Amino acid sequence: MSSLKKISLKDIAEVAGVSTALVSFVLNGKNKEYRVNEKTAQRILEIAQKMNYQPNIAAKSLRSGRTKTIGVVVSDISNPFFAQLARILEDEAAKRGYTVFFGSSDESTKKMDCIVEKLINKGVDGLIIVPCENSERSIISLINNNISIVLFDRYFPDINVSYVALNNCNAAYTATKYLLNSGYTAPCMVAYDVDLVHMKERIRGYKKALSDAGKRQQANVIFLKQDAPRKSADKLLPKAINEGADAFLFATNMIALACLYVIKDLEQKTVRKLGLVGFDGNPVFDFFYAPVSYVQQPIEMFAMKSLEILIDNMANGNVVQSVLAEGMLVEAGSCK
Questions:
Q1: Which InterPro entries does the UniProt entry name for this protein (predicted)?
Q2: Which CATH fold topology does 2-52 show?
């Protein structure tokens, strides 16, 4: 995220005609300690202000922990899962004297970067981020700038950074075994066509369950476009059913909603034969005329742990702490 440091100490020093060290003394409030001429100090401050040297001021805030604010960037605050997270984080942070600022990336790295930069410029003490696809460089940039961050829900295995997430492989494995044990012989998984670890792990768990049941060759994953899930589901779900799929494992809450719109328009005798399992509960499931079981994520624990790790890192330095929590299958009525 190169925009975090558009203006350097060196840039200001060159304009002011002084050394980089002198600029550092002034911007860190040490001009009197190092006996910097008052007029020179004032000129440096004016130049820094004109050059919009906000990122450096924000970084100083992050290191000192003076603002008692936290930035949270999720993919979509309207998603019930993230909305619940936001509610809990806001309440728990307030108990600790922190205010939380929220933003939605809409799965866009560019928008995520923009929100993160604005939060940093506001002087937040740390960040909880649901990273987008292809945002590795942005996360590494934050780490290199010594900004306290905790990744939530998703993480990058090759980046040494704190994260809190679901054990997605185990969760999908459990859900798939549930369908198989309920008598379904050809469960199909519906996922997003993205290169993110949580999606890969859910697919891996699904395939492992089928493999362990001697059905490795029957694994069938259909991929929806993340920016148009409903449109993709309209085409792919009926085709999967025609080809023999008798159950569906939906990889996310929003995928489940997109697919239920399609399923509700199928013949009722077809729908009644389908096994349906998703991730995260939704009030819609209660009103759907076919039972929809789901993997319940420990959202309260996620929020508490993310906040705990972030506050600890802000106070004591960035020590990497990783948490993978287990989900719980909630059965919705009889499957068969």
A1: HTH_LacI (IPR000843), Lambda_DNA-bd_dom_sf (IPR010982), Peripla_BP_I (IPR028082), SBP_2_dom (IPR025997)
A2: 434 Repressor (Amino-terminal Domain) (1.10.260)
